[in-house]
Amino acid sequence: MPLLHLTSDELLTTTRTVRKRLDLSRPVEPEVLKECLEIALQAPSGSNRQDWHFLVIRDESRRRALAELYWRSYQQYLASPGAVNKLFADDPQRYLTQQRIMNSTAYLVEHIHNVPVHLIPCVNGRMEGLSSGDQASRWASILPATWSFMLAARARGLGAAWTTFHLDYEEEAAEILGIPYHQVTQAALLPVAYTLGTNFKPAPRASVENVIHWDQW
Ligand SMILES: Cc1cc2nc3c(=O)[nH]c(=O)nc-3n(C[C@H](O)[C@H](O)[C@H](O)COP(=O)(O)O)c2cc1C
């Protein structure tokens, strides 16, 4: 699969959450997904356990069933005080960005069942009852690989959105997909497709000065 001409810094700063620019009509070849996952498997994992799994869902009826869970969770989220459009109301610039994200999120809710591939990264074990250190270790044994997948996908002209809405109904999703819920944790749901155009820009972010702490908090 040919790669886009991006420097490593361009790749790292332009791998965006893609929602409205997912090409819903272009199929994604299994080979390109496999290539991205092979790269993802180079990510670190606690004790090099590599106890990760990646469900690649192409089947339309399963995508529709997941979309229904996604929609249900989104409705609850909209009503919650933490909804993206309710944050930063006192900062006009940031509030505008939040409104744009909300608009794009609403688009994805309407169309997620039509995105040709849903990827669900999973890790062995459950988080319930683990110490925070053990939880951190287990999450960090799947999230870097998932981000590597997104980077590898971007390099090949694909886009994805990191989403977690369906996890409110993780057990139902496990039933739909045959995942052994009591032994395996789902980490996210990434709708994946080729992007409409490949030009993405770095996003405005709060200054590093606000978050960097040298030597002490
Ligand atoms: C842990 C996590 C959960 C997220 N969940 C969702 C989600 O359920 N639905 C969605 O549309 N976007 C979701 N996002 C995407 C964020 O809204 C997005 O990363 C943020 O707006 C910044 O946009 P950017 O990635 O393009 O810079 C999630 C991102 C992260 C890291």
TrEMBL record:
InterPro entries: Nitroreductase (IPR029479), Nitroreductase-like (IPR000415). The keyword Oxidoreductase applies. Gene3D superfamilies: NADH Oxidase. It holds the Pfam family Nitroreductase. Keywords: Oxidoreductase. SUPFAM superfamilies: FMN-dependent nitroreductase-like (SSF55469). Residues 14-190 form the Nitroreductase domain. CDD domains: Nitro_FMN_reductase. It comes from the Bacteria. Belongs to the nitroreductase family. This is Oxidoreductase. It comes from Ktedonobacter robiniae.
